Amino acid sequence: MYSLRKEQLQFLKQTLQFIEGEIFRLTGDLKKLKTREHWEYPVFVRNHPLSIDLDLCTKQGFLGVFDTTVTDNGFQIYLHQFLQEKSPFGEFKPNPISVEQILNQRNYPFQLMRKFLVLDGEPNEKFVLPQVSQNSDFWKKRKWLRWFFPIWGMFSPLYILVGLLFDLPLIPLLILLNGILFVSYRKESILIWKEIKSLSFASNLFKKTFIFLSKERKITKQMLKRISNLGDSSELLVSPLPHLILNLLFLWDLWKIQSLQKWKQNFLVHWNELQNKITTIDSILPLINFGYLNPDANFAKISDDTKLNAESLVHPLLSQSHRVFNPLPVMKPGDLMIVTGSNMSGKTTYLRSIAMSLLLVGSGAPVLGKNFETPKFQIHTLIRSQDSMEDGVSFFYSEVRRLSSIIQNANGSNKTPILFLDEILKGTNSKERFIATREILSVLREKNCIVFLTTHDLKLTEIPWAKRYHFTELERDGQMDFDYKIREGVSSSTNALKILKKEGIPIRNEADT
C-alpha cells in the first residue's frame, strides 16, 4: 500500500509539473520552462544552418520549448525530422495523418502525453527503450550444456545437501567443476545480465505507456511482469560472494539465461512492436503537443502544384497576445520577394514565420495560419552568418561559402528550393554588394528557386522580376509604433536616426541626411 501510494504521488507530481509547463507554453512565458541548454543538443543539430538562423536550439527555441519526448531514439528522430534531415534510424517520411488523427480525438493527446511521463525522470532527461534481439551465440556455442545443465543444476545441490548430511565424498570436486564451468561463461553471462537489467529498467519506466498503447493488455502485463521479476534477480550481481555461491551450487546464471530465452520466445515480437510504436509516437509528441495547445492551427496542403501561398500565417513561438497574422502571396519557382522596411518593423520575423511554418509542414505538424499550400520543398536559410577566428574565416567569406553551398544543393533536386536571405553580403561595400546580390538572385531564378530577401538597399527593389513588399512604423504622439503588417510596395520610411537619438546617442548633423 505504501509503495502504491508513493507511485501515485510521484505520478501526480510529474503531472503537475507537466501542466505548469503547458501553461507557460500557452501564455508565452517561455523563460520559466526548463528547457535544454544550447550545448546539450547534439553537435550536428546545434551547428545546423536552420538551427542557427531560426534560433531552434536556444533556451526559448522551438526544439526545446515543445520537446516532450522521453526516449532517446524518439528525441533523435524528432530533431532530425524537424530539420528535414535523414534520421540515423532510417529515412523519415512525414505522416501528417497520424498527428491529425490523434489531435482529432478530443482529450486523447493530453492523456497520451501523461502516459509518457516518467516518474523518476528529470526535466529533458531521455531514456533508452531497447529492442529485443534473438541473436545470441551463448547456447549455439554450448549446445551440449543447454541440455545437460538442467539435470546437473538439480543434481549438484541435492548431492551437496545429502552429502553434508551423510558425509558423502566428492563434494569439493563437484563444487570445483561448477566453479570451472562458471568461469568459462562468466564474461558472456555478464553481458546477458546487462541486457536483462536494461529490459527490466525500461519495462518499469514505460509500464503505463506499454499498457496504454497495447491492444492485448493481458499479454503485455504478463510480458512486463516476467521481465521485471527477472530483472530483480540482477540485484544479486552487486554482491559478488552470494552470486558466486549461487553459481557454485545451482549454476544460477544458466537458469536465468534460460528464463530470458523463454521470455524472448514468448514476447520478442510483442515487445518490439510496442517498442516501435512507442518510439514512433514519442518522436511526434512535440508536434502533437504543439497542435493540442494551438487548436486554431491548420494542416497545410502539400500538392503537386508548384505554388507556395497562405491566407495568413504567424511565427509559432509568438504568444497569443502578440500574434499578428500576415498573408503569404502566391510564389512560384523562379519568383523573388524583396521585403523592405525600417528597423524592428518585422521583416526578419516574417521570413522566420514562413520558414518555421514550412518546417512544421515538413515534419507533419499543423501551422498557425489558414489555407497554407506548399509544393514539395527543400528549405535553405541565410539569416545569421558567423565568422571564425580559429579557421581564419571572415564574416563576408562565411556568407559566400554558405551561398555557394545553397546554390550547389539546388542543382538536380526534385523538390522546390525555397531560400530565405536576410541582408546578404553585409560585409562588403554597397556597389559590389548590389552587383553580387543581383547576379546571385539571377542564378537562383534560373534554378527555379523561390527566394525571400530582406534588405535596406532600396536599389535592389529595381530588379524587374521582384515582388515588392514592406513593413513600416507609424508615428503616434511623436513615438514610433509598429503594427507588423505587411504591405505592397517599397518602404519609404527609415528610423535608424530616431532609434539612436532615443537611446541618447547625439546626431549633430541630422539635416545633412
From TrEMBL:
SUPFAM superfamilies named among the record's database cross-references = P-loop containing nucleoside triphosphate hydrolases (SSF52540)
Transmembrane among the record's keywords?
Answer: yes
Q: Locate the coiled-coil region(s) and give their ranges.
A: none
The membrane spanning regions, by residue number, are 144-162
May I have one GO cellular component term?
cytosol
Question: What does the record list as GO biological process?
Answer: mismatch repair
The reply to whether Secreted figures as a keyword in the UniProt entry is: no
A single MF term (Gene Ontology)? ATP binding
Please provide the record's keywords in A-Z order. ATP-binding, DNA-binding, Membrane, Nucleotide-binding, Transmembrane, Transmembrane helix
Q: Please report the stretch or stretches of sequence annotated as the DNA mismatch repair proteins mutS family domain.
A: 334-513
Protein name in the entry: Putative DNA mismatch repair protein putative membrane protein
